[in-house]
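Hi R.,

Here's the chain you asked about this morning:
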Amino acid sequence: MTARSRLTVLAGPTAVGKGTVAAYVRDHHPQVWVSVSATTRRPRPDELDGVHYHFITDAEFDDLIEGGHLLEWAVVHGRAKYGTPRAPVEEALAEGRLALLEIDLQGARQVRQSMPEARFVFLAPPTWDDLVDRLIGRGTETADEQRARLRTAEVELAAAQEFDAVIVNDDVPRAADELVSLMS
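And here is the predicted structure, written out as tokens:
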């Protein structure tokens, strides 16, 4: 058994590519354990339950909160709940694995309270226009949802200085490799 490892938290604004970078890490860096969050939102067309998220009901999510089974959780964009099941994270760390948690800014702040020893990495877009193009280009939100997410993103971008490191997501493989290098 190896020594307990240090959790790395990847956060950043909506549509910056956190999920894409985390998926690249999962697919190309098998030494890294990537946490799977729970959410009450509906799956996007390319998402699989248990791989991208655990898609659960509001009642199931509330049970996890009440039981203290979430490391962090939040209502995001005023709509869906997202959270990180605590037990799998603790198990990966106890096994000494490189552990990655890909979450939003609210969640990162909660993790900082409960696990201040974690490494916090902010994923930033190359430019604001790139972020807008990514959000609109993925076509998964209504115009109202896009506006709400962009308002949130403006606030989230200002939080970059709260993090231990900032990685610009100008190229997914490069950003993912930089992240894994920081973790190692």
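One quick note: Residues 7-183 form a domain with the Rossmann fold fold (CATH 3.40.50.300).

Cheers,
M.
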